[in-house]
Amino acid sequence: MKLRQSMAGLHTWGGLLPSWLLFVIIFAGTVACFDKELTRWMRPALHDGVVSSLGADDVRGWLQQNVSDELHAFWMHGPTEREPYWRLGWEVDATKTIHNIAFDPRSAQAEPMPETLGGEFFFKLHYNLHAGDIGMYIVGLAGMFMLVALVSGVIIHRRIFKDFFTLRPKANGQRAWLDAHNLFGVVGFPFHLVLAYTGVAIFVASYMPAAAQVSYSGNVMQYFGEVMGSFEREEVGQPPPAPVSLDALIAESRQQWGGGEAGWVSVHHPDDASAVVDVRRRDRSRIGSPQDTLSYDAGTGELLNRQDASTGYRAYLWLAGLHMAQFGGTLVRLLYLLMGLAGCAMLVGGLQVWLAKREQRGDRSVIWVRALNASVFAGLPLASLALLWGNRLIPATFAERAVAEGWVFVGAWLLAVLWAVLRRHQSRRLLREQLLLGAVLALGLPIINALTTDGHLIASLGRGDWALASVDLFMIVAGLVCAACAWRLNATPAAAAVRGRSTRVQEA
Amino acid sequence: MSRNASINRWNIASRVLAALVGGYAVAYAVTAFLAVYLPLARPDRVVFSSLASFAVWTAVVIYVFAARSATRVWLLIVGVTAVLCLVAFFSGDWRVRP
Amino acid sequence: MLLLAFALAYLGMTLLCLTMNRHRGALLRADTRLPGPAIIRSLAVGCFGFALWLGVNSQGGEIGTVIWLCLVMLSGLLLVLLLAWRSRWVLPAVPLLAACGVVQTVL
Fold first, then answer.
1. Is C36 helix (H, G, I), strand (E, B) or coil?
2. Which InterPro entries match (chain C) (predicted)?
3. Is the pLDDT of residue A259 over 70?
4. Minimal C-alpha gap between C31 and chain A (Å)
């Protein structure tokens, strides 16, 4: 009895306090399941599905012509089914700044596309909230809170199996929300637990440096080298010889793997005679791709090292792969998306339980919690839709276009927060209006997409390009669902009015 | 009554601190200990002990709030952390064996 | 084949649900006779097992298991949502899903 009480306190407060942050993380992660499809949608140059005909040497040629800084490294990824274009990134030696661009697949020469945040925006929001290392630690801590909340939630649940199928939407507020919270928490429990654990495990080297400190005496380079079986070479301070063709190295690597595909190709200290080309294998047929990287001398093309990852690192990759869902194709990503939405529903349900309990007691401060709920649970999806609108409406020639998109997102979210605060006494009306706005924004996206690009829904469906069409289709479905919810909220005011009146009486 | 409430408040604050800081400390110590004493090759010891650390932290948090006495919790946390860290870090060349 | 696995998982969930008096009344007429709960539960486990076999068969051990687990969770969610709002659709959904699954497998 005592145990259950203390665990209930732990679950309530340990779950409540990070729940808005967790919602941001889970929502962003859920969207990031289809980040590459979203990127394609956000880049009109990719709408007709042309696959780039460039080679790795063309990409390197562009870099040599257009970037004069001394580079620490550069890396590139060739066209794939979901991303039919070349991506290039580089790190400048002196300033440690990182640049990323993507090349237009329709062009025969290497020509960068107009920049955009792309679907990667949500991926980054998911793992570090766009706040660098600090954000990564905050997300990790939130993940630990989630693990604790999941375990304590199981301890306090009295009838996990008996109530497994129970959902009583017509019961009083608290009961109904508790059912919903339990349903999404219990039925989705394996998913939430695995994703929370594998999520914190991805940055384990940063979160828990104990093992490296004790067993490698804190020698990070040796630690990573030995664990990953990777290859490093010190700079020698001499100018490099003429580099060998990257395309030839990729072809050779594919031969070495018996026809396997190449993924990331990276060149370390390219302006030095010690330059090394790493060709990483891309294997989507397994959960933890073994990444057996081949390292070549950039000048002679001699094979220097074949990555032989330790068992531990393979286990780590398996866990990380389980989290990132890059295996099993669209089906797995769709399942993760649905389970992620279930996670969001669990959070919302839990908060509603907390609110309903306090509302019954006539606690006045719940209005502010309601306002916070409205600004996060509705504000973030609305801001995400606004980001897509911004992506379509900001002209392609606009300088710093990606930054502008970011400001659209931030501005929209701030407006949503302001709106929620101003309307804090009419949470029901606010919700209805938010749903309506969401419906308008979501349903408007396929239209504005059709007006501003050639990749409209009819064209993409006609081509059988489901990857691109899925974004528009998803928007239509989401918009219709929002509209239906708003309509229902309007149509059944009776029960709600009674509930609302009683709370107002209590508040008065 | 108010004295009770303030005692209660201190008790909760102490447990929250024990869960956050103490929990991490125990997880750190267990990881360091396992990284030295697991019967595996060095890279595997390091990775597996690190991966287990989050489970340790979670378990400690649950224990911290389930235990009756906060004093006992602190004693146990400090004791376990100290012993495991000492055993791990003062194991000579054994800890860096390949 | 995976839709069929989903149908099986859903059937398994429905069977488990039928062993509980609380939900049985909502799904079946009062005078319907069913085998004992132990038999129904083992049937449900059989359904889950068969679904797992289908998943592993079509996607390999690792990925098949992950997909299977997601399908089981989602079938549970679907069943509960139907139970709460459209309980008359719960039982007809079994043959419907199974038919879709068979059609998908055959095609």
1. coil
2. DUF3325
3. yes
4. 22
